Amino acid sequence: MKPKQAMEYVVQDYNIQLSGKMISRALKASREEVIGDKGAQNGKIRDYLMELHRKNPGSTTRLNVIPQPESLPLFDRLYISSDACKKGLIEGCRPLIGLDGCFLKGYYDGQLLSAVGQDGNNHFFVIAYAVVPNECKDTWKWFLTQLQHDLGDSTERGWNFISDQQKDIFPRAFHRNCVLHIWKNFIEQFKDQQTKQLVWDCARCTTEIVFKAAMEKLKQISVLAWEYLDRFDPATWSKAFFSPGPMVDNITNNMCEVWNAKIVAYRGKPILTMCEDLRCYLMRKMAAHKKKLEKHVGALAPVQQKRLDDFIKPKSHNWKAIWDGDSKRVLFEVHCMPCKHAVVAMSKMGLRPEDFVHKWLTMEVVRATYSHCIKPVNSEEYWVQSNAPNTLPPPIKRAAHRPKMKRRSDPVKKEMNPNKYRKTFQVTCLKCGQLGHYYKTCTNAPQRRREGQRKGLCNL
């Protein structure tokens, strides 16, 4: 609750007018009572992680501290990966992992690094997350090292990664760059509308010949734009060169973006409250998906069945399969979902397209993903206290200038939604009647009212 909302609540319900400072002090005390003291929670992190590991055996928790010569250690970073999330990823999710970080809005700031997968029903599936002081090569290397210990070597599991930039870990794994981030950096230099669209055309190419034709078209329009995109390895941002292992052709890191948007309300809370809210959110999400999918009847996941029925099968009616005279049936590989041409051939042979869909999109694998669950954790009074010394909160780093409360506008936001309607208005001064300023900052002469007009009244 904001101070302004609290002040309106007190006036409307109790008819009491309080000062702003009194409202702020009351809200601060209420938050500490309900949410917890933001400084004292750092001393209970080790006990919480032990309780989390005791209730969810097989989970991975890591706590790094900074030792002090004549004081208690300082909190540095934290890593959590539940056993249900690790098993669900290995048993039912496709081996494509998105990596991203977001700001924490609490008193001590920091960054939340996340690793997010995708289940057979195209829903995001959180694997692990970490609280670190900032986003840099050192923190990402530490986070991905812990993730590698949990998931195993990339050569054994075939892990693929997608992020806004290449990471320095999992060197033998396939990496993808988020095309949205490439496009954002691209349009800062090249403003032509046709050139902007060609970036997405090149990324969506499914064959090497079509990709080369799209790049040649870009070169004819702008040589500098072609040189900019030619610096990137096509295997990291174009569908035509993607590794076929994950059986998914995502070119953007939307899995992490959705996860970051879902947890906005939790990112401003103290560290223990935030970690517990994240655990509860994942627990509820997994339970809700499990309950919803139990009622589904069919071999494929709901989203995949809809994709096959509404998008692929109708397009197959425009094609005709012709027999070449060979009586042999050749078994060919279909990447996850059969295309419209394969559906026509299957229909002519009396086969069902659902039987040729990859197992990662079937209900059997989706149910295996959510067959595990995250167990609840006892309240604080039932935690087993450790013998290790408590940790102090990290040092506060504040800029010299006054903190900015308004979010910095994205310069390419208007380019992403050119047709979006934006509400605009102009302020009218109640003193002089001019536009563009308030009456408190008005230096003009007051507007002369008409005879008989009073302040606060209007003629009907």
TrEMBL record:
<dbReference type="InterPro" id="IPR018289">
    <property type="entry name" value="MULE_transposase_dom"/>
</dbReference>
<dbReference type="GO" id="GO:0008270">
    <property type="term" value="F:zinc ion binding"/>
</dbReference>
<keyword id="KW-0862">Zinc</keyword>
<feature type="compositionally biased region" description="Basic residues">
    <location>
        <begin position="398"/>
        <end position="407"/>
    </location>
</feature>
<feature type="region of interest" description="Disordered">
    <location>
        <begin position="392"/>
        <end position="416"/>
    </location>
</feature>
<dbReference type="GO" id="GO:0003676">
    <property type="term" value="F:nucleic acid binding"/>
</dbReference>
<keyword id="KW-0479">Metal-binding</keyword>
<dbReference type="Pfam" id="PF10551">
    <property type="entry name" value="MULE"/>
</dbReference>
<keyword id="KW-0863">Zinc-finger</keyword>
<dbReference type="InterPro" id="IPR001878">
    <property type="entry name" value="Znf_CCHC"/>
</dbReference>
<dbReference type="InterPro" id="IPR036875">
    <property type="entry name" value="Znf_CCHC_sf"/>
</dbReference>
<feature type="domain" description="CCHC-type">
    <location>
        <begin position="429"/>
        <end position="444"/>
    </location>
</feature>
<protein>
    <submittedName>
        <fullName>Uncharacterized protein LOC107491537</fullName>
    </submittedName>
</protein>
